[in-house]
Specification:
Elements: H1 3-16, H2 22-29, H3 33-46, H4 66-78, H5 85-94, H6 102-111, E1 134-135, E2 138-146, E3 155-162, E4 168-174, H7 179-192, E5 198-201, H8 218-222, H9 231-239, E6 242-245, H10 253-273, H11 278-296, E7 302-305, H12 313-317, E8 322-327, E9 333-336, E10 339-342, E11 354-360, E12 364-371, E13 374-378, E14 381-383, H13 397-409
Parallel strand pairs: 1-7, 2-5, 5-6
Antiparallel strand pairs: 2-3, 3-4, 8-11, 9-10, 10-14, 11-12, 12-13
Helix pairs in contact: 1-2, 1-3
């Protein structure tokens, strides 16, 4: 009997012996007069048991059976040993169809002395920037180096998250943090929602040239740029998208927290799917993001959408690639990365014409040039060496006659030369 029940028993004793009025007793116990009378009658018939609730010692109708508890513990120890409790509870419901609440999972594991693998430490407080009001205004972009496939080798996951909604717009795995990997993320964003108005990134070399010795090219200077551009910056300029640089990791806190969540969840999900390579992970990631966003995406403060209209994929690929300028020689060929390429014969290009070389893992090497005021993209032919061009010169009839005479008499000496006997 607990303290509350002992107090109720003492009041019932005084009411039964008429040492306390029913009105006073009802006020002390917080009961109505009719309920107090019922308790007094029960006390006179059953004694101290009247002060104890009738359900004490009785198993609840919705109690979790021992078999279910043992099943939960077995699954956690054998398959989900390093899952956090929320993630483990989701798997119990989705994969094993166990109708059990998250607090119950925590309570069951606590009974078996199993603690959550996540360590909850007091974190240093930082001023939190308010999210943008519209979806598509600002997207945070970053990469995370981690042993994503549990092979003892670090790979890089490239991702993007909408600042207003927390929607993960793209996820791409590669061996290193590369510009081409970020281009793949941008292609995913375009397929999903359309590109945003601004990107928010750190100051890595993929996004910004940090060396003070580098100067903008002549073409960049003529276009009004005072600093040299990376391939990523050049692509965003073509698309009309602004690029904002963060000064601290805390400034891009939303995507930094996302990496913490993904390093906890995505690794386990890929383990269950048997994924051990970036190629397999990139094929699987769109299906996972669809499921993740349904669970964690939140509505924006403003219902208006700020995303740009979706672009045709082929057109966007020609922008999201590596680009360099070249000048065609007399044979309409150019060099690129120690290789020689020549323009197709059906293309009416001109010697000394400036072209743009496009390179991407998606389409290889292409050349972009203007012909007749129109921009044309072609696939150049690769050669083993530069073509030999024979010079063609126009010679007058007088010069031809002189050359004939020189060939006929020139080796016979001055005496045989017809010029010796020339008369006016």
């Amino acid at each position: 009997m607990n303290q509350r029940e002992a107090r109720r028993l003492a009041v019932l004793e005084q009411v039964s012996s008429k040492k306390m009025s029913q009105k006073r007793a009802s006020e002390l116990l917080g009961l109505s007069i009719s309920r107090l009378k019922a308790l007094v009658r029960d006390y006179r018939e059953n004694g101290a048991r009247a002060a104890v609730h009738g359900n004490v010692g009785r198993a609840p109708h919705n109690a979790i059976t021992v078999e279910v508890k043992e099943r939960v513990v077995e699954l956690y120890r054998s398959r989900y040993h390093d899952f956090n409790l929320s993630h483990f509870h989701e798997k119990l419901v989705e994969e094993h169809h166990l109708d059990i609440s998250r607090p119950s999972v925590h309570r069951i594991l606590s009974e078996y002395k199993i603690a959550s693998p996540r360590k909850h430490r007091r974190k240093k407080r930082h001023h939190r920037r308010n999210p943008r009001s519209r979806a598509g205004e600002l997207v945070q972009l970053d990469a995370s180096q981690h042993d994503w496939f549990e092979l003892g080798i670090d790979y890089h996951a490239h991702g993007a998250i909408d600042d207003a909604t927390g929607r993960v717009l793209g996820l791409y795995f590669d061996e290193q943090e590369l510009t081409n990997a970020y281009f793949e993320v941008l292609l995913q964003i375009n397929d999903d929602t359309g590109l945003p108005l601004e990107f928010y990134t750190d100051k890595r070399g993929c996004f910004r040239i940090n060396s003070k010795e580098d100067e903008p090219t002549l073409e960049e200077q003529l276009s009004g740029l005072t600093e040299p551009q990376t391939q990523f910056g050049r692509a965003l300029d073509e698309l009309g998208i602004d690029l904002i640089y963060a000064n601290t990791p805390q400034a891009t806190g939303r995507i930094e927290r996302l990496w913490g969540t993904f390093q906890d969840r995505v690794i386990k999900e890929m383990r269950l799917e048997g994924i051990k390579s970036p190629k397999d992970a990139n094929e699987w990631s769109p299906y996972y993001l669809e499921k993740y966003n349904k669970q964690f995406e939140r509505p924006a403060l403003d219902s208006e959408i700020a995303y740009l209209p979706k672009m045709p994929k082929k057109e966007l690929e020609l922008i999201l690639c590596h680009q360099e300028k070249r000048v065609l020689d007399a044979g309409l060929s150019f060099s690129y990365k120690t290789n020689i390429f020549v323009m197709p014969t059906q293309i009416k290009a001109q010697p000394k014409q400036i072209i743009t070389v496009l390179e991407s893992p998606r389409f290889g090497i292409k050349a972009k040039l203007k012909i007749g005021g129109k921009t044309v993209v072609v696939v150049p032919n690769q050669l083993q060496s530069r073509p030999i061009i024979e010079a063609v010169c126009s010679v007058s009839k007088h010069t031809q006659d002189i050359n004939v005479r020189r060939q006929e008499y020139g080796r016979m000496g001055k005496a045989a030369s017809p010029w010796k006997y020339f008369e006016f």
